[in-house]
Structures
1.
Amino acid sequence: MDQLIQRFLLYLRAERNVSVHTLRAYRHDLTEFNAFLKTKYPRLSMERHHRLVIRDYLSHLHERDLQRATILRAIAVLRAFYKFLVQEGVTSQTPFVGLPMPKREKRLPRYLAEEEMNRLLELVAQSDHKWAPRDAALLELLYSSGLRIQELCQLNAEDIDLWSGQVRVFGKGAKERMVPVGETALKRIHTYLAARPKGVRGTPLFLNPHGARLSDRGARWVVSRWVRQAALQRNISPHTFRHSFATHLLSHGCDLLAVQEMLGHRNLVTTQTYTHVTAEHLKKVYQKAHPRA
């Protein structure tokens, strides 16, 4: 099993070109499953990894009182793993055939109201803090283009086209897409690039205090620091900016397919999650504006 897991992870990295974060999550979940098998089914052959074993493992996950999202991710990892084993001829059938799966909990994306977002961004822009130019550019770009935090940190200076107002992004699976950048964000980026030490072509867009590429953790810390200063009473992460980007676009009538393209979603169903949010927004507007609401 250890060798099969390594083969699968190598396949994900070489053939599927998954991100480092995805690879880490897959390795963690498969290691957990392998440890369960070694403890409870030490002599079970691969051909006998049948539905009862998987059902037992699911019960084991539920007993640990894990969040539904964590359990669903573990299931998705195992399904992909066994699908790979069938393709490789290691086993004849995946044990997930005909096995009922728990449904994903429907939760509306958390987002900031437009007034809250404006207050946060203006706070950073008007600050005289040493790193305010960088942080203002970073936060504006997150909100302006709806980038994932990993996508933002991987950007190089030449990925931003200040003339056409677009940014070249490499998303999940290294898929390239061009995303529009708002005028305010372009101004913040221009100010930041003009203020930082001149670098060579290919340098990271966002730098840490040591002159190296800003990490995901560093970018999350930047968001957290300014959220605290803005006194926003919410658990706001970089992904909240992405949710806000999509929600505000749809609220102002942007086409759903256009939002899907900008977010880099493979499936339109993923993007449709935000239509429920905007429906709530429209309901509030209706109740406030209609004379007989």
2.
Amino acid sequence: MSFAKRIRYWQRIFSAYFSSNPSQLSFWHGEPRLNTEFNPETLGPYYMDFDQKADYAGPMDDAGIPLLDYRGHLGRQYNPIAIAQYGLGNYNLLVRTGDLSRERKVVLVADWLVDHLEENAAGLHMWMHHFDWEYRDTLRSPWYSGLAQGQGISLLVRAHQRTGDARYLGAARRAWQAFLVHVEDGGVVFVDTNQHLWFEEYIVSPPTHILNGFIWAVWGIHDYALATGDGNAHDIFDHGVSTLRAAVERFDTGWWSLYEQSGTRLPMLASPFYHRLHIVQLRILQRLTGEAFFGSVADRWEGYTRSPLKRSVALVGKAIFKLCYY
């Protein structure tokens, strides 16, 4: 990353963390919580509760769609992942309370997702991010994400089930195609040397296999399979679970979890927030798959959080990684 990019990155981070006004981090960093009301065999409440996201207090556009404030030169932006999560949080509250004001928000988000599917250069329908994002390689606008595809699908199939509006299922079918195409051909799938399927949050080369984004994408595939009965989707979900079963130990340092497979000399440790998110995601995977293995890894990782020393070392390690590579 160039010196100018580093300056912009750290200015945005400083502003997001130390300003009193809501930033994009205010949306992402609510406490991760498993939604105990979901049934793994039916398409019902979403797997995390997202209550805080449903009551997002940050900026909205005139129609009521959330905007995230990235500060600095990026300013306020539509983020399709955040919009889908806002909708999923409202869907859960709708199911729990019957509050029809929540249904209006779910429909608003579903309509936005239908209207904002765009074709990429390969002719696949994607939810695009229309701003540059300074990952280690800058993601140039417009860029797309396997995480966005999965969570958009998760919201749309639930909106279709609730309303019967065929547009929602049609948009989910179009978005689903990204999970059938390799990244080099415009999709979001990477196949490693062991023939494991990865669904990439950020499309970069070499791929970084961001753990939380991969798991959320796998849930979107699961939801699409439940909603449509598509046997291919069931198979791809099983492949994703197989990848996680085989690779999750690579995200374990022996004292903390990794955010991604960075491929750098220093590993990219998960922040305390993302470490807690990983634990919740693994517990949900245990319920979705019936595999105790995922619960045992969650137990181990939760044990790491009880050590103040491990938490402190993880924070310092994360900061050093960012200083070296961002």
